[in-house]
Amino acid sequence: MKDKILMKGNEALAEAAIRGGCRYYFGYPITPQNEVPAYMSKRLPEVGGVFIQAESETASINMVYGACASGARAMTSSSSPGISLMQEGISYIAGSEVPAVIINVMRGGPGLGNISPSQADYLQSVKGGGHGDYNVIIFAPSTVQELADYAYDSFDVAFKYRNPVMILADGVLGQISEGVILPEFKEIKDAPEWALGKGKERNIIRSLFLNPEDRLTTHNIHLQEKYRRIEKEIQYFEEYKCEDAEYLIVAYGTTSRICKSAIDNMRNNGIKIGLFRPISLWPFPYAKLKENAASKETLFVVEMAYNQLEQDVRIGVEGAAPIERLNKLGGSVFNEEEIIDFISNSITLKGNKYVG
Amino acid sequence: MLNKIVLAGFGGQGIIVAGKLLAISAMNEKKETTHYPSYGAEMRGGTCSCSVVVGDNLIASPIIKNPDIALIFNKPSKEKYEPLMRHGGIMILNKSLIEDTNLRGDIKKYLIKASEIAEQLGSVKSTNMVMLGAFVKATSIIKLDAIINSLTIAFPNAKEKAIELNIRALEAGYNNLE
User: Fold this and answer.
1) Residue ranges covered by each domain of chain B
2) CB-based contact (8 Å) between B62 and chain A?
3) Number of structural domains found in chain A
4) pLDDT at residue B41 greater than cutoff 70
5) B57-66 pLDDT tens trace
6) Between chains, do A179 and B33 touch, taking CB under 8 Å as contact?
7) Which residues is A178 bridged to in the sheet?
8) CB contact under 8 A, A336 and B60
9) Residues near A89 by Cβ (< 8 Å), separated by ≥ 6?
10) Do A172 and B59 lie within an 8 Å CB cutoff?
11) Contact between chains at B27 and A175 (C-beta distance less than 8 A)
């Protein structure tokens, strides 16, 4: 087995993306993801790739649009305010079915907010974000290893479905350094038949459908059929100590790893509690969550945002269990003790025998 | 076993890189570890810190509220971290830059003239290695050899002379702890 190396999240995802075939990066600096463009600017020329620091996030996403339309493996990265600026381009990319990869290392909002870790772009990411009926495939890693693994795989997923893929990380995952085993270099395939300049016929890539035979409706139906197929095929989640659990935490990303440690601690005090962690946030693993929620005393939704993940949890659970929320707002990170205190108190208030 | 370690001082004192070396050494000793810098508008001469967590299981959070151990490189950092230390925690102070070394009664205190020792060895830049050597002696969480063996991994482009200086600084820190 290969040795672990210590790498910062931002750098590990950049290296893994290159190993996954990424040869074009377009971006504009913003904390806490600056190590991604910094790393790409050094590393891409070494592997025959291209790095361009664009004049803005709007320019970055449109450069990605162009590169991916010609069948190249291209990506951009930014943090919350920058990702907001990219939403128009992401809508165009989804509409023209171009396989782009976008990284969002979330920070506190709204507005310019701050540079601290946050999860408050959940709804923007999973419910579209730009205009029109579309979905972006969203992966939410919780360690540097997962960040690298999903960055590596995201290009294959994007090309398989001709759909944008976003990795939703946060300031902690971007800035943390951990041991990681990097994947092997993938062989880069030729541009697919649909790409600009490929195939026998002239290929046209566009999101504009003005003609009177109502082709936009047909196009939208096609997109929705594709989304239903993706929903069937991508359902990523993790269950942690769920088998005998009477209570369940639902959390993703950085928050989920803090919850795991809180769960170990609470179990030492006799509270039977587990974690359901969605990894694909769109498609959300609703069915598996519902299965886990059935017969639970209470579900605790823990997120660094207000009532965002919780909205999807409620859709999935369909009233099968009571739901309580624990939120951290404005770019600050949970510590284990406050999660334990909140849940223990909640259980005590219900007259449960576990907590003295 | 879970140790929450903070390194704090001025930007330019090698705080981040010393933390990285510590984390790499812990990882090579098959421990779980995270390294997390203070990030944002950092600058040379400004305050700077990083958090290193070393444990047996996956580290829950890299962010430290109450440190078990603190390597304090300058006076402002002492003032910042003294009230945050866990009851009975360990503080290692760079005596060269901290005149008043009085601490809360429950904190276990170690002193090292890190900047002066580094300067005598040839470069004040190795203050961070002297501090790390002192940390090894004070806590024995990581062996000195583990850190020495990780130097070439942490600094793959360093010249042999620089590595040697760092080893001498680590050893001097280890041997001169007060």
Assistant:
1) 2-175
2) yes
3) 2
4) no
5) 999 999 999 9
6) yes
7) A7
8) yes
9) A58, A61, A62, A64, A65, A130
10) no
11) no
Structure tokens at B143: 């062996």
Q: What is the pLDDT of residue B74?
A: 96
A199 and A323 co-located in one domain: no
Same domain, A284 and A193: no
Q: What is the dihedral of CA A249, A302, A228, A93, to 10 degrees?
A: -150
Q: Can you tell me the distance from the alpha carbon of A67 to that of A262, in angstroms, rounded to the nearest whole number?
A: 44
Q: What is the percentage of chain A residues whose pLDDT exceeds 70? A: 98
Domain B2-175: give its CATH code: 3.40.920.10
Q: Are residues A47 and A128 in the same domain?
A: yes
Helix (H) / strand (E) containing B132: helix B127-139
Computed over every residue of chain A, the mean pLDDT equals: 95
* Residue in A36, A146, A177 to test binding to B, most B beta-carbons within 10 Å: A177
Q: What is the CATH number of the domain that holds A67?
A: 3.40.50.970
Q: Which of A67-76, A107-116, A192-201, B22-31 has the lowest mean pLDDT?
A: A192-201
Which pLDDT belongs to residue A213? 74
Answer whether residue A355 is part of any domain. Answer: no
Please provide the DSSP assignment of A29-84 as one string: --TT-THHHHHHHHHGGGGT-EEEE-SSHHHHHHHHHHHHHTT--EEEEE-HHHHH
Q: Do A258 and B34 touch (CB under 8 A)?
A: no
Q: Which residues pair with A293 in a beta bridge?
A: none
Tokens linked to A161? 């479905």
- Answer whether residue B109 shows pLDDT above 70: yes
Give A4's contacts in chain B (Cβ within 8 Å): 27
Residue A302, in any domain of the structure: yes
pLDDT for A244-273, tens place per residue?
Answer: 999 999 999 999 999 999 999 999 999 999
Reduced to 3 states (helix: H, G, I; strand: E, B; else coil), residue A170 is strand
In Å, how far is B27's CA from the nearest CA of chain A? Answer: 7
Q: How far apart are CA A17 and CA A28, in angstroms?
A: 18
User: Do residues A25 and A116 both lie within one domain?
Assistant: yes
Residue type, B142: I
User: A261 and A129 in one domain?
Assistant: no
Residue A201's pLDDT band, with cuts at 50, 70 and 90, is confident
Name the phi and psi angles at A319, rounded to 5. 75, 5
Whether the per-residue pLDDT at A158 is higher than 90: the answer is yes
How close A46 gets to chain B, by Cα (Å)? Answer: 17
- HSE, CB side, 13 Å, CA atoms: give it for residue B105: 0
